[in-house]
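Its record is retained below.
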Amino acid sequence: MSTVLISGSTVGSKTRTAMEAVRKTIETNYPDEEVTMLDLSEFDMVFSDGRDYREYKGDTKIVTETIMAAETLIIGTPIFQASIPGSLKNVFDLLPQDGLREKVASIVVTAGSVKHFLIAETQLKPILSYMKAQIVQDYLFIEEKNFFRKEIVNDDVHFRIERLIENTYLLSGTYKKMLQETEDAYDF
């Protein structure tokens, strides 16, 4: 199984810190898992102009093809102005309408206050659903107060990271088994 972690902002450090904690937890608890981190701050992405994702060049091509090849996505996003950042939305705009079909996706949100708790429900989950992802229903919400000097300082957050990863791989395995059973049922 291949997992792609997306740190969905080009500025700041909290989302990247959270996604690094996710990566380290996967590497510790699931050492056979193939994990790729896409930190959007490290890529020079172009804006979507409606082309097929395979027609883009450079970093845009690398990011989109890496996502399309993944079986599992863990998407990290900060909340800016009560919304996901444009850099993350652009990634979704670059992909085909059903580009997340047969992929399991889970969400990590970093925000300055609990006022933004439902942004994942009202903005990110609908995008993922529209793109046909199988969405892990619970998501990880981390407030600013849980970070100190680019580290997560709350043990409960670390526990919730482990649970999110566990739920992500449980859904992924179940979904993969269901697809195989469906394929076998129609294989004459």
